[in-house]
Amino acid sequence: MRMVFRWYGEGNDTVTLEQIKQIPGVEGIVWALHDKPAGEVWALEEIQKVKEQIGKHQFHIEVVESVNIHESIKLGSPERDTYIENYKKTIENLGAVGVKVICYNFMPVFDWTRTDLFKELEDGSTALFYEKAKVEGMDPMELVEKISQHSSLSLPGWEPERLKHLKSLFEAYRDVTEEQLWQNLGYFLQEVVPVAEKNGIVMAIHPDDPPWSIFGLPRIITNKENVKRVLKLVDSPSNGLTLCSGSLGANPANHIPEIIREINREFPGRIHFTHIRNVRIYDNGDFIETSHRTQDGSIDMCDVVKALHEDGFTGYTRPDHGRHIWNETCRPGYGLYDRALGIMYLWGVWDSLERERRKA
Ligand code: CS2
Ligand code: MN
């Protein structure tokens, strides 16, 4: 397991590379050109600049999250070919500086969605919270308004530029069924996977968060069967998975350790990247993000790590979101402290499993 940490870039993150350096066992930075609108080519010079910055701290830049997919590709509209060509060019440029994994998602319009970014937990910390009934009864415009009031920093997938066009996007998706979204994903992968292969890169799709349809928009990366279906779309190691325990795990029907074991059995070597975090699910379908500890949430985190360890997981792992603790002011979900605690929990479980394995 190779530990990495997501960082939003100089001037765009409250966490510094110096701080990340002091978290035990972190070897690389998960990065992106966050100002790039989806669909534009990432120029070599821009990429090299980030590589230099990060390299000064002896971190690698092997994992990118995300190169976002232009809506026309998800919609299957005629301009998609231009944007797919741009995507290929970005893959080539990323391959040229030593990037190995590109994490991306295929969610129409919205990336991860919550109703409260700072919901208080019993211990006084705050965390991202999803209230199911609220989303079901809500006009998406309202949610966008609410989220943008909360935070001066734009959230991944919630960039103001994109959301300005929300109405027309909704209209465009009105006739896109889940099956069509599958077709469009297949079309995209058939085009880009060979380019990724040539450039030493693996694509790693991130599950939908939450893993069900919201606001009537189709969502397809939602459960074990659908994850397998993606992997079958193109049979290549470069068509792989980001296994995000908190995204898939928000649906109690998704048993994360079982999913890991089954994917590893049926599609060995296709989990390239894992996002590990715990969520507590309530009977009414609401959920809140908790500490990484198994006892604090609904996901058996020890068994998640065990499932990865059993198979000698050599891919990249990052703690996904964390709570906001010790009065930290930070991007929602992306503070330093709780993610660092999460890493130590993951190492604790991993290292003891390693020790047992060596003894055996
Ligand atoms: C991330 C996602 O913060 C998160 O939950 O896991 O925003 C993720 O970066 C994208 O969905 C991947 O494309
Ligand atoms: Mn994730």
UniProtKB/TrEMBL annotation:
Keyword field: Iron, Lyase, Manganese
Taxonomic superkingdom: Bacteria
Catalytic activity from the UniProt record: D-mannonate = 2-dehydro-3-deoxy-D-gluconate + H2O
Cofactor(s) listed in the protein's UniProt record: Fe(2+); Mn(2+)
Bilayer-crossing regions: none
Metabolic or biological pathway, per its Swiss-Prot or TrEMBL entry: Carbohydrate metabolism; pentose and glucuronate interconversion
Keyword Transmembrane helix appears in the UniProt entry: no
InterPro entries registered for this protein in UniProt: Man_deHydtase (IPR004628), Xyl_isomerase-like_sf (IPR036237)
EC numbers: 4.2.1.8
GO MF: mannonate dehydratase activity
Entry similarity comment: Belongs to the mannonate dehydratase family.
Protein role: Catalyzes the dehydration of D-mannonate.
Name this protein carries in UniProt: Mannonate dehydratase
Organism encoding this protein: Caldalkalibacillus horti
